[in-house]
């Protein structure tokens, strides 16, 4: 088996380059235009694509190939990248042979519409679970990372990796987010919680929380139709490390990552306490 670098070392090594990518994304946001939509997506949020998505992925690929040339890597724009063929693999290997994944611009449509809550997400995956996830929010000069079993840490871009502070658990009086395709659950929750459903609430003029609102205090729970390993599932891992409950729709634990198909886990429930989690369980039983 190939000896993989430790997850914390991967994050620490990539962080300066990810900060450069963040500065690039911030600088170009007001100038960026959309590329042709990705045909494989079933909604306009997932279909959005820009030059920034492709350029940031290329930057990370160059750094990985130059620093950790034996690493496994899967980036969202792998089909459009000239570097994909140079990586040893894009899928899971044996336990301990880590897979690095990247969403170069999570929330591309938010980014295109001038909102601030887009981010860069890079993850280190083992066969069973995430080992590490780092997210950078260029518009607000903030990043946070989670290491398996160690919690979540945060800081501004000026703060060094080792000096980040533990993220404090978020209070439970915020809204519930319904991911794409989950809007039918709103009637079963609206009497107890503010509910934001992506399908009908998204606005070019008014920013609404994305899944990253779980860590930023805007959300106390979320129902996600399927957990993409590069973004929503990675954020769910971070939420779990911050103290949230994360399960499948039937309340069972999240299965090993290498059992997923097409880099997606089944539907996820994320809640900051057991009471909210029970209400989310009750809601999904209605469909």
How would you describe this structure to a colleague?
- The chain has helices at residues 7-28, 44-47, 51-67, 108-112, 198-201, 213-216, 232-241, 274-284, and strands at 72-75, 99-106, 119-125, 130-137, 142-147, 151-156, 165-166, 175-178, 195-197, 219-224, 227-228, 245-248, 264-265, 268-271.
- The protein has two domains: 7-166, Fructose-1,6-Bisphosphatase, Chain A, domain 1 (2-Layer Sandwich), CATH 3.30.540.10; 175-284, 3-Layer(aba) Sandwich (D-Maltodextrin-Binding Protein, domain 2).
- 27% of the residues lie in helices and 23% in strands.
- It is globular and about 55 Å long.
- The strands form three sheets. Strands 1-2-3-4-5-6-7 form a seven-stranded mixed β-sheet, with helices on both faces.
- It is built from eight helices and 14 strands.
- The chain is α+β, with helices and mostly antiparallel strands and 287 residues long.
- Helix 1 packs antiparallel against helix 3.
Q: What fold name goes in the CATH topology slot of the largest domain?
A: Fructose-1,6-Bisphosphatase, Chain A, domain 1
Main beta sheet: strand number and arrangement? 7 strands, mixed
Spatial strand sequence of the major β-sheet:
1-2-3-4-5-6-7
Shape: globular
Roughly how many Å apart are the termini?
44 Å
Kindly provide the name of the CATH class of the largest domain. Alpha Beta
Integer tally of domains:
2
Run of helices and strands: HHHEEHEEEEEEEHHEEHEEEH
| Poorly predicted residue ranges | none
CATH architecture of the largest domain: 2-Layer Sandwich
How much strand? Answer: 15-25%
Content-based structural category: alpha+beta
* Count of distinct strands: 14
**CATH homologous superfamily identity of the largest domain:** Fructose-1,6-Bisphosphatase, subunit A, domain 1
Estimated radius of gyration: 18 Å
DSSP helix count?
A: 8
Helix content: 25-40%
- Report mean pLDDT, rounded to a whole number: 92
């Amino acid at each position: 088996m190939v000896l993989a670098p430790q997850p914390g070392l991967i994050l620490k090594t990539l962080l300066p380059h990810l900060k450069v990518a963040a500065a690039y994304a911030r600088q170009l946001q007001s100038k960026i235009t959309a590329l042709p939509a990705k045909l494989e997506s079933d909604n306009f949020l997932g279909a959005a694509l820009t030059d920034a998505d492709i350029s940031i992925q290329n930057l990370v690929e160059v750094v990985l190939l130059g620093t950790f040339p034996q690493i496994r890597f899967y980036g969202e724009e792998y089909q459009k990248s000239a570097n994909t063929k140079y990586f040893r693999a894009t899928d899971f290997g044996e336990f301990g042979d880590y897979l690095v994944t990247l969403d170069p611009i999570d929330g591309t449509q938010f980014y295109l519409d001038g909102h601030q809550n887009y981010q860069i997400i890079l993850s280190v995956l083992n066969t069973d679970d995430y080992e590490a996830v780092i997210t950078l929010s260029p518009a607000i000069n903030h990043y946070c990372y989670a290491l398996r079993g160690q919690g979540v840490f945060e800081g501004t871009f000026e703060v060094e990796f080792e000096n980040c502070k533990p993220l404090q658990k978020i209070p439970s009086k915020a809204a519930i987010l319904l991911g794409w395709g989950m809007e039918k659950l709103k009637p079963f929750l609206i009497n107890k919680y503010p509910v934001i459903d992506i399908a009908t609430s998204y606005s070019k003029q008014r920013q609404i929380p994305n899944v990253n609102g779980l860590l930023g205090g805007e959300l106390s729970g979320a129902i996600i139709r399927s957990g993409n390993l590069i973004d929503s599932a990675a954020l769910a891992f971070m939420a779990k490390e911050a103290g949230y409950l994360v399960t499948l729709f039937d309340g069972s634990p999240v299965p090993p990552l290498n059992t997923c198909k097409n880099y997606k886990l089944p539907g996820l429930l994320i809640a900051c306490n057991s009471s909210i989690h029970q209400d989310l369980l009750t809601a999904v039983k209605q469909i």
